[in-house]
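Supplementary Text 2. Reproducibility record for the structural model of the 456-residue chain.

All settings were left at their defaults, and a single model was retained for analysis rather than an ensemble. We include the record here because the model underlies the residue-level annotations in Supplementary Table 4.
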Amino acid sequence: MTLTKSIAKQVTYTDANFNHMTEEEIYEYQGRLLQKQLRYVYRNSEFYRRKFNEIGVYPEDIKTIDQFRQLPVFMNKEIEREAQRESRAHFGHPFGTNLCSSPDEIEFTGTTSGTSGDPTFTYTFTRGDLDFLNRYIAHMLDYGGVYPGDRLLFSHALGIYATSSILWGIRSHGVLPIDVDVRAGSKMILKYAEMTKPSAAMMTPSLAEHLIDKAPELIGKSVGELGLSALFTVGELGIGIPEVKQKIENAYGCRVYDYLGELGFSCDSDEYHGVHCVAPDLSLFPTDLVDPETKLPIEIKDGVIGEVIGTEFNLKALPRIRYATGDVVQVFTLECPGCGFKGKRVKVLGRSDDMLIIKGANVYPSAIKKVVANFFPEVTGEIRIVLDNPPPRIIPPLKVKVEYGYSFDKRYLPELEEKVINALHSEARVTPDIIWCEPGSLEKAMTKTPLFEKRY
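Retained model, structure tokens:
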């Protein structure tokens, strides 16, 4: 099934007041929100009070966002873990000394997965926080044509993890989530979709692709026969790759939207133009960028690339202030060519800790994957970057496993290899050794598919 092309509906800000403001007016308004939030966290958090005192700068000294961006990073994942160890020892709760509300006011907490260390309770909210955040999810669902009374297949690893906070926003919109933990397996996910007939679904791009291959075998029908009208994906590069977007949309027969939690979502366009940042009253995202290596501020202009420093307004439990997220994005400031949205847009390039340094050049795995995917169907698009030693510095040549296509004649691999290497050299600044793999041999994960194969 091929999705019929249509004119993209314009994305709007969640708070309609911003639709009538210039970027300069929005920036000034964010400055006022920032001043208010800095005073709040200083009064209510031992961690933030200590940080301001250490640098000798206080909330009332900060008059503009530009001044704020000159401050050092306050927190990253390891500092957050230490703050949580300290709060467990001194206060008997796990939420960190950066907690600004009483622990008794917490309505929801969701942790990170803990794959790179102890899990952190980063996503911790009061009832007021949840009510505030729910608006963004409801706004996205409404844009995607998911309305009160509909059902939505929600297939992530649930339990204590961060994605489960999205369920509050789904329910607040009057939509019934059919939540199936991915650990239940492909057959159970597809069975629930068959039984409940949801009009939309949320999952990772990896799982969406995985179900395309598995559905005929497990339920005797294609994913296009599930009758979805919208699919929302999160957590990976995914539909930022044109071939992946087209594959998923054609298979499911519906539009696929990329989203970043409450921060924004992609538009209803045939081409991918990035996540539209619809929440200027939630955070500074993506206005505060730094160089991933030096952590120095970067000027925001069209096409700039940098690491996101997170600062949240209006949240009361555990707002992040000058938090080094590790997420590297490219920011676009010009009007969206697909839908006409006038605010900022971002494309996620990867994680700063995934960055490889090869002969002095910074290389992101997502860039390699994107270039390789351009050769579909001669390749499947699945890759693994083989690491013989810990990143980021790599002794060349970089080794990349690539699956050739299901119908590709292996006799022509030398010619294909030359084309792939030339494209990677010119577009991703890397000249790798290609290790060809049979199609389907690099298994997709149901949560996030890894890009690295670590041999060290």
